[in-house]
Amino acid sequence: MTPAAQWPALDRTSGDLEGQVYRLMRDRILRGQMPAGQRLPSTRTLAISLGVARSTVVNAYERMKAEGYLQSTTGAATRVAEFATPPLQGQAAPTSLRPQPTVEVAFDGLFKSGVPDVAAFPHAAWARYLGARGRSLRVHDLGYGAHSGIRELREAILEHISTTRGVIARPEQLIIVPSTGAAIDVLARVLLRSDRPDGALAWIEEPGYGTAQALLRMACANLVPVPCDIEGIDIAKAAGPPPRLIYVTPSHQYPTGATMSLSRRLALLDFARANGSVVLEDDYDSEFQYASRPIAALQGIDRGEVVAYLGTFSKTLAPGLRVAYAVVPSWLVPEVTAAQLLRGAVVPIHIQAALADFIRDGRFRAHLRHMNAIYAARMAAAVSALRRHCGDWLEVGEGAGGLQLATWFRNADTDDLAATQGINGEGFALRAMSSLHLGPPRPGLLFGIARMPPEAADAAVARIAKLLRVLPASA
User: Fold this and answer.
1) Which of 361, 383, 416 finishes a domain?
2) How high is the pLDDT of residue 30?
3) What pLDDT shows up at residue 22?
4) Mean pLDDT of all residues in 314-322
5) Which single residue of 25, 48, 133, 405 could bond 354 by disulfide (Cβ 3.0 to 4.6 Å)?
6) Are 467 and 393 in contact (CB under 8 A)?
């Protein structure tokens, strides 16, 4: 173990102490000064040595773990990861010793979309909040009255999304649910009426979120795909009568990553007001933006109460927490809360209370900043590698935000289902873009970037390029 006294002093004038600790350890690993298996100082010991808060060191360690440089198990010391062993003395490493993407197979397949990196979850901090609230729940929180969410959490979430997303609402309009899917299900069953002419009609983006498609079908929706381009959904190209429900992901369209233009937003709101439609705005992973600040939510410019805004902590914290929320128009609140209770779409009170404290104490905002930096590096590495190795076959997006990257086959006749089957047989978990279309598909591949360390992306994509060369679907 490297003695804590041997760590150099930090430059306090430049700020970003967490980043300095991270870069200090990372550079030592890459130079071979900290070999694989070496034990690191405890976070408390190193914090005292460097004269910083322990949380600064904890966050730096978590970032290193998330990027694959460190490994640890419960009750054991943190050590330098085996696969991260660098060349000694700055010399070029033999090919057999260079980091290989196969180390990520434990993540249920490389480039899997729709999953965050839960290895970076702030376990220790969350455990403290959860434990404290579990021991001190109030009697009136333990009954049936708070099935739509305790007021503390509603207010904490609303304060956050009003600041970061421009959402305008009262706490009573915010309803806590276990997942975005649960919110879609409840709202669809409240809004859609199969016994009325066109009462079950729903418009959905094309290509679009497969889970939303399935949930709306389960609610007996008559789905009509509406094409998306670089400006988002184009309702001028929609066919048939006005729908009762319109599902959109305007801030970061799934799966293309497009941001709906202001003119399209205003046109959508005007249409919904004029035709009695309700817009389901799914704010899918829009808090992760790498080139600019997140664009404000559609709900914030809605003056006709036609937008129901959906958000989740599954991507920003962890899916296992099972916490999401819906901000619904005031006139819909009674029906939605009644339907929510009937369907049992509720979240345990102690988790709600702990999350309220976690948000109010600034922990959630800090975690978002931390993860945004991690995901930005992973997205940049994925985009660079794909353009370098697969540019002959694929058009690669900008990767300006989100946890997935859409690519399109240059040859429009490519069978992307066959291509993904062949590629995924080698340990990957790509998704065919055609599977996200209801109408005529455009072939492509969808890459999840959340669990791919930047240093592993190049080798992983090089493997995919070799597979594309031999797959019949890429001819």
Assistant:
1) 361
2) 65
3) 77
4) 92
5) 133
6) no
Q: What is the dihedral of CA 329, 184, 220, 194, to 10 degrees?
A: -10
Given strand 444-448, what is the order of strands in its sheet?
394-396, 404-409, 444-448, 431-432
Q: Check: pTM over 0.85? Answer yes or no.
A: no
> How far, in Å, CA of 466 to CA of 446, rounded?
18
Instruction: Report pLDDT digits (tens) over 329-388.
Output: 999 999 999 999 998 889 999 999 999 999 999 999 999 999 999 999 999 999 999 999
SS3 content of the chain, % helix, strand, coil (to 5): 45, 15, 40
Buried b (16+ CB within 10 A) or exposed e, 404-441: bbbbbbeeeebbbbebbebbbeeebbbbbbbebbbeeb
Collapsed DSSP state (helix, strand, coil) of residue 398: coil
**Which has more confidence, 470 or 259?**
259
Please check whether residues 33 and 135 belong to one and the same domain.
Answer: no
pLDDT of residue 142: 61
Distances in whole angstroms, Cα of residue 309 to Cα of each of 157, 184, 253: 13, 10, 14
Residue 67 predicted with pLDDT over 80: no
Examine the domain organization and report whether 146 and 278 are in the same domain. Answer: yes
Name which of 249, 260, 244 is nearest 282 in CA terms.
249
